[in-house]
Every structure is written in structure tokens, then in C-alpha cells.
């Protein structure tokens, strides 16, 4: 199967409200261009340097999503162009994104990453930490970021019940926090689901799936 066929087949199964992020990390630009030529305009990368190198040479109507863990000292390298940052998991990082967005005269959309997996290797906030951020005065003063949703990664397991429980948990937090609507916070996006579990994620209420290997092949 070609990248184009993979992409079109997956897209044909997605409900209209679900946005597809084509996760192109580690893949060469020629692969991304095949997806681009098939109509894909949203790409996800997990390393800022790699994303920037691709952004520089690729068509400018692409929306670049940072889906990986972000180090504060690297935010400046993507602040001019990044469309959505999925993996925000601290107030300190939000403050840095806000600072760099201000320098670029932009408002940068962000998702807060919630820890839903059993493994403690995966990044993310617990519910208490999420509440602490949303309720803090420091957060309310950030005018150059906007929290537009939540993101989570399920445990890497074959156990569908476990994955489903984790997605349902994230959806319940999402529904609860959607009631908060302020200048810099309005949750519309629920980013959950990857190649192995995106159908289940959609059943559980995902509005944005991040799919890599099923489009571009294994890494
Ligand atoms: C790599 C990655 C994906 C895509 O994973 P696949 O299994 O290749 O679809 C999705 N989300 C995040 C955060 C990733 O790092």
C-alpha cells in the first residue's frame, strides 16, 4: 500500500468531526510530500528541530502540530509557526510558550496533556495538577496562549477494556472542563488515539487522532 492509499483509506473511515494529524516523525520529506499531494495539511512531529527543518522547506499551508514532550528552552524555535502544541504539562512551560508567542505577536493554541496510562513513563498532568493550573492567577494572566483542549495517551497494551477505561476517563475530564470558558481557555479538542487504538478513541469521544505508522509505515 502507498502512503496515499493508506491516508485516503483512513480518512474515509473517520467521522467528519474528527481531525486527522498525520504523524510524520522520523520520516523523510518525500514521504510527507506524498501525503501532502494526497490532500493532507496537518502534520505532527515530536522533535522541534526536525519539525522546523521540515517546516522551512515544505509548503506554507501546512499546519504543524508538536505532539512530543516540549523542553522550555526549545519553544522559541517553533513559536513563529507552530499551529498547536499537544503535550503541555506544566505552568512553567505555558509561561514560556506565552512569552515566545508574545515576541512573535501571536496567540499559540495548546492542549494540556493528561496522564491516563498506567505506565509512569508517559508525561502528563493528573486531575489535581490540571485544576491547579486552570485556577491559578498566573494562568489567567497569560494572554498569548489559549487552551483549546486536552490530549492523552493510553497504556501500550492489548487489553482493549483497559484502553477504553482510560479514554473514557479522559473524556469525562474533558466534558467537565468544557464548562470553563474564559479568555484563554475553551476546550473543543480532545486529542486521543494513535494507529493501534484510534477507532476505540473515536468511540470514546476523540475529536483528533494522531496517526503515524498506519499511514507512513513502521519507524
Ligand atoms: C508517535 C506518536 C503517535 C503516532 O503513533 P503511531 O502508533 O505511529 O500511530 C501519536 N502520538 C504521539 C504523542 C506520538 O509520539
Summarize the structure.
By secondary structure, this protein is α/β, with parallel strands linked by helices. Helix content is about 40%, strand content about 20%.
Observed structural traits:
nine-stranded mixed sheet, alpha/beta, 21% strand, binds pyridoxal-5'-phosphate
Architecture overview:
With 219 residues, this protein is α/β, with parallel strands linked by helices. It has 9 helices and 9 strands. It has helices at residues 3-13, 29-37, 48-57, 91-103, 127-135, 137-140, 160-177, 198-203, 213-216, and strands at residues 19-23, 42-45, 63-66, 84-88, 108-114, 145-152, 181-182, 185-191, 208-211. A 9-stranded mixed β-sheet has the order 7-8-6-5-4-3-2-1-9. Strand 7 and strand 8 form a beta hairpin. The model has no long low-confidence stretch (mean pLDDT 97). Pyridoxal-5'-phosphate (PLP) binds at residues 23, 25, 46, 67-68, 153, 194-196, 210-214.
Beta-strand level of the residues, as a percent range?
15-25%
Bound molecules: pyridoxal-5'-phosphate
* Extended strand count: 9
Give the termini distance in whole angstroms: 16 Å
Helix fraction, binned, reads 25-40%
- Main-sheet strand order equals 7-8-6-5-4-3-2-1-9
Report the C-alpha radius of gyration, rounded: 17 Å
Quaternary structure state of the chains depicted: single chain
- Global morphology: globular
Structural class: alpha/beta
Average pLDDT, rounded to a whole number, is: 97
Reported for the largest beta sheet, the result is: 9 strands, mixed
Low-confidence stretches: none
> How do the helices and strands follow one another from N- to C-terminus?
HEHEHEEHEHHEHEEHEH
Count of helical segments? 9
Amino acid at each position: 500500500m502507498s502512503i496515499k492509499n493508506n491516508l485516503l483509506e483512513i480518512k474515509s473511515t473517520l467521522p467528519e468531526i474528527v481531525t486527522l494529524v498525520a504523524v510524520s516523525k522520523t520520516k523523510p520529506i518525500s514521504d510527507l510530500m506524498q501525503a501532502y499531494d494526497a490532500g493532507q495539511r496537518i502534520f505532527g512531529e515530536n522533535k522541534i528541530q526536525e519539525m522546523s527543518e521540515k517546516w522551512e522547506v515544505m509548503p506554507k499551508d501546512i499546519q504543524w502540530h508538536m505532539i512530543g514532550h516540549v523542553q522550555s528552552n526549545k519553544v522559541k524555535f517553533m513559536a513563529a509557526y507552530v499551529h498547536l502544541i499537544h503535550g503541555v504539562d506544566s505552568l512553567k512551560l505555558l509561561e514560556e510558550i506565552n512569552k515566545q508567542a508574545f515576541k512573535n505577536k501571536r496567540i499559540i493554541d495548546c492542549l494540556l496533556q493528561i496522564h491516563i496510562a498506567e505506565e509512569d513513563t508517559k508525561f502528563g498532568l493528573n486531575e489535581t495538577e490540571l485544576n491547579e493550573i486552570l485556577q491559578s492567577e498566573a494562568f489567567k494572566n497569560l494572554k498569548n496562549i489559549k487552551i483549546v483542549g486536552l490530549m492523552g495517551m493510553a497504556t501500550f497494551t492489548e487489553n482493549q477494556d483497559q484502553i477504553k477505561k482510560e479514554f473514557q476517563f479522559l473524556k469525562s475530564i474533558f466534558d467537565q472542563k468544557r464548562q470553563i470558558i474564559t479568555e484563554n481557555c475553551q476546550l473543543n479538542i480532545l486529542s486521543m488515539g494513535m494507529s493501534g487504538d484510534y477507532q476505540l478513541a473515536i468511540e470514546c469521544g476523540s475529536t483528533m487522532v494522531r496517526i503515524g505508522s498506519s499511514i507512513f509505515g513502521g519507524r
